[in-house]
Amino acid sequence: MTATAQPTGTTAVRTLRIGTRGSLLATTQAGTIRDALIAAGHPAELVIVTTKGDVTPGPVQRIGVGVFTAELREELAAGRVDVAVHSYKDLPTAPDARLVIAAVPGREDPRDALVARDGLVLGELPAGSKVGTSAPRRRAQLRALGLGLDIQELRGNIDTRIGKVASGELDAIVIARAGLSRIGRLDAITETLDPVQMLPAPSQGALAVECRADNPELIAILSGLDDAHARAAVVAERGLLAELEAGCTAPVGAIAEVVESLDDDGNVIDELSVRGCAAALDGSDSIRASAVGPIDRAEELGRAVARELLDLGARELMGVTDV
Ligand SMILES: NCc1[nH]cc(CCC(=O)O)c1CC(=O)O
């Protein structure tokens, strides 16, 4: 903080306005940031911002990348809110020069989860089972497993999605485990999908805490919420996505994890493991690549995995259209 910063923990502190979407998931996520700021001595409150993604029906790949985050970013850039909390995976890969992601807090489990009727796991679903998901990445990877599943469009908030299994409209859905965790519905999960079968979306389960780039005092306050390992993982996964020139609606999965390895002298050190995949939307093929390297070269590692995917034909594969 600079010498001109207001003293904290006193009555002189202005309440920080945290912009969030109005869904239960979004307000719960933003609520954790509000609570952490208050605990650190910075009064904060939530301000609900309605986004195009909240009011437009239809698949996200048709309404456009950034539908959940663009309005929130405009409110932030215009100074109507001080902080925005996003699901990181909903942000476009292109940076917004007016803003900075001042914190990537500790991340939830990034994996996808299956919510199926009768407690079934993926391998137990009979061919022809109706499985709801509209993310092209999930659709492509599910098809590539060759289980003969009937993949159906699915949107709406988490409760609506789970409700379609409870009502019998669908046999199962695939959804981010993090979302269920945040709203206290882990009980609905019948299987957490191993990344060997289903690689999650780049930055799934992570939050982006954003503010204006011209506010160093606020950046300093928010950086107290940053988790170095979560940030490194997200930087690698997003680097992979950016190198593929793809967005959150592309059939691309990635996961980066901090793992322990031995250095040349036999000492245990933390490294970053990065796995990525690109799949044809029709499930006809999918390719994978991986790398392990220093945590402080996260972006480079992610981009290197992406280049390997490109060498293996990712561009052509991602061009295969839906069936
Ligand atoms: N695109 C919608 C979205 N954005 C963030 C989450 C879940 C929470 C997260 O990944 O952080 C979801 C729902 C889902 O993919 O099932």
TrEMBL record:
Binds 1 dipyrromethane group covalently. The modification S-(dipyrrolylmethanemethyl)cysteine is found at residue 248. Residues 16-218 form the Porphobilinogen deaminase N-terminal domain. Keywords: Porphyrin biosynthesis, Transferase. The keyword Translocase does not apply. InterPro entries: HemC, Porphobilin_deaminase_cofac_BS, Porphobilin_deaminase_N, Porphobilinogen_deaminase_C, Porphobilinogen_deaminase_C_sf. The keyword Nucleus does not apply. It catalyses: 4 porphobilinogen + H2O = hydroxymethylbilane + 4 NH4(+). Residues 233-310 form the Porphobilinogen deaminase C-terminal domain. The porphobilinogen subunits are added to the dipyrromethane group. PANTHER family: PORPHOBILINOGEN DEAMINASE. Belongs to the HMBS family. Monomer. Tetrapolymerization of the monopyrrole PBG into the hydroxymethylbilane pre-uroporphyrinogen in several discrete steps. This is Porphobilinogen deaminase. It comes from Rhodococcus kronopolitis. The gene is hemC.
